[in-house]
Specification:
- The chain has 252 residues and is of the alpha/beta class.
- It is built from seven helices and seven strands; from the N terminus they run βαβαβαβαβαβααβ.
- The protein has a seven-stranded parallel β-sheet with strand order 3-2-1-4-5-6-7, with helices on both faces.
- The protein is globular.
- It starts with 6 loop residues before the first strand and ends in an 11-residue tail after the last strand.
- The chain binds NADPH dihydro-nicotinamide-adenine-dinucleotide phosphate.
- The site of NADPH dihydro-nicotinamide-adenine-dinucleotide phosphate has 29 residues, from α1 and α6.
């Protein structure tokens, strides 16, 4: 019940990790707004799941790459719930390619969704949060923002910039009572990782000290913690949820 009375927005709340984040925040009694740009059906099924458990949830469609749509989403949330306390910038995509073959569109699309989307959504909630002098923003980054993997220059660059944006906005927004942190997941079993893990499953697994892939719920628990008052003195941090992946230099 750590988030009773709070209102949260989760972008990409219909996806693998987003869905778990929505359910995790709802389990702590936050009212949760699920947002995505694609399938309304997928997003509404998450809303239905929350409501079936006695929670409060709503769907608001918004493409995070469109600043006007993002502003409209936040206005709709304020209109319906009167406030926004938590923003989880989770929407993300991958468009993998070896660098020399990467098309400009693959580069740009990943930067637009994974980086610019975080900025647009953060900018849109600052005013309503600052008016209450309270807020928690959690950006979903990635281990690939710090540890490279081939064919991911667009994704790595975007996530590294999200870590920088997290620290910079934490410093700037602290005076308004707004905390900004990031969660950097390692290899979590979702639609996004399915293809890569089909190909490299054993090699990737061998690089994870805890010897297992992560589940979306592992990320969701870290997000619920950072959103709560238990993390009241934590801002500007990047919390790794990786099973230890990326720490070791040599073979395990
Ligand atoms: P999914 O593909 O399962 O979910 C992505 C979500 O983002 C979907 O809800 C999708 O909905 C939404 N989305 C995509 N583009 C947009 C957009 N322009 N506007 C609004 N919503 C959008 O991915 P994951 O759950 O695996 O990933 C979630 C986050 O976690 C991402 O930021 C990802 O980079 C990060 N991450 C994931 C890891 C993993 O191992 N899975 C590891 C490290 C980080 P729709 O397409 O319907 O709009």
């Amino acid at each position: 019940m750590k988030l009773a009375g709070r209102v949260a927005i989760v972008t990409g709340g219909s996806g693998g990790i987003g869905r778990a984040i929505v359910l995790g925040l709802a389990a702590e009694k936050a009212a949760v707004v699920v947002s995505n740009r694609g399938s309304r059906e997928d997003a509404e099924s998450v809303v239905d799941e929350v409501c079936a458990c006695g929670g409060t949830a709503a769907y608001v469609s918004a493409d995070v790459t469109r600043p006007a749509a993002v502003e409209k989403m936040v206005s709709e949330v304020i209109e319906r719930f009167g406030r926004v306390d938590i923003l989880v910038n989770n929407a993300g995509i991958s468009r993998d390619s070896l660098l020399p073959l990467m098309r400009t569109a693959q580069w740009q699309e990943v930067i637009d969704v994974n980086l610019s989307g975080v900025f647009y959504c953060t900018r849109a909630v600052v005013r309503p949060m600052a008016l209450r002098r309270s807020g928690a923003i959690i950006n979903i980054s990635s281990i690939l923002g710090e540890r490279p993997w081939r064919a991911h220059v667009n994704y790595s660059a975007a996530k590294a910039a999200v870590n920088a944006l997290t620290r910079a906005s934490a410093v700037e927004l602290a005076r308004f009572g707004i905390r900004v942190n990031a969660v950097a997941p390692g290899f979590i079993l979702t639609k996004m990782t399915r293809t890569a893990l089909e190909k490299f499953r054993d090699r990737v697994l061998a690089s994870i000290p805890l010897g297992d892939f992560g589940q979306p719920e592992d990320v969701a628990k870290a997000v619920a913690f950072l959103a709560s008052d238990d993390a009241r003195y934590i801002t500007g941090e990047v919390l790794h949820v990786t099973g230890g992946a990326g720490i070791a230099v040599g073979p395990l």
